[in-house]
Amino acid sequence: MLVVGVGAGAHGARAILTYLDSPHRAPVASRTVRRRRGQSLVSTISDGVSALHAIAAKLSLPVQYSAIAYRLAEEADAISAHRDPRYAQLVHETAAQLRYLRFTGTVPAHGSTVLCDLGSTGMTVSVLDLAAGRTVAARRTETFCGDDLDHLVRRHLADHGVRTDIDSSRALKERLSDGGVVSAHDPDGAGHHVLTRGDFDDIIAGPVRYATMVVEQTIELSGTKPASIVLLGGGANVTSIGAAFEKRLRLRTVVPQRPELVSARGAALLSTISGATDQQFSD
Questions:
Q1: Residue 95: in which H helix or E strand, if any?
Q2: Which of 12, 39, 222, 265 could form a disulfide with 136 if both were Cys (CB 3.0 to 4.6 A apart)?
Q3: pLDDT, mean of residues 42-58
Q4: Which CATH superfamily does the domain covering 110-255 fall into?
């Protein structure tokens, strides 16, 4: 059965076309639509979903169900006002994430864990009671976000005579996340600077310390003793963040494969369940 799952937020939307029984495998197709200035979230989601339906049509594969994972109640209201309820379920982001992590065996059935969603516009920390399937404590901060890390890389390069746009800075950050060395150049080739993984870790050290503090405070507020931290979102691909969390918090830190797709994959799993929005995770 072919389904569509969407993870949506301030950054835009990530949508996947996948089979219901194997959302952990490489999607049949996927689309990441970054929200343009002035563009509504509904329009952004529509762009991603329409592209996937067009691909399914070309393959003569009907899409049976779809679901959209949202974070904020106002986002759900806006999506609800424009979606066709016959074809799209609305599910809370945390419910979708937990569903997928349970499907893959990443989290156990009991105890507690921390979900740390590192997005382009902010970080959401949720401490979950796994047996009850509910959020015990949560905190959202926009002080630590992927976009700011991109700007830090851009500023560092500018200090060394290299002018780049934000997309180029983001690409360099993603390459450095895997380690090694990258060479940055001006568009006209005049400026050049070699950026190492050590440089990158130094550049983001301050923001990462702040993020670690936020996670630590949220855990203390929850009154629980979680066994692990699961890093989600595109920022989870920056391996030094997970290493810093594990060192400071002394908790096992887990990064699922393709962490930026976890919300979309969880939404796909919940797409066949009528009324799948989980009030236990609502704002």
A1: helix 93-103
A2: 222
A3: 93
A4: ATPase, nucleotide binding domain (3.30.420.40)
